[in-house]
Amino acid sequence: MGKLQPLIDEPVKQFIEKQRMFFVATAPLDPNGLVNLSPKGLDSIRILAPDTIAYLDLTGSGIETIAHVKENGRLIIMFCAFEGPPKILRLHGRGRVVEANDPGFASLIAHFNPIDGMRAIIIMKIQRISDSCGMAVPLLKFEKDRHQLLAWARHKGPEGLKQYRAEKNATSLDGLSGLAP
Question: What is the pTM of this model?
Answer without folding.
Answer: 0.95
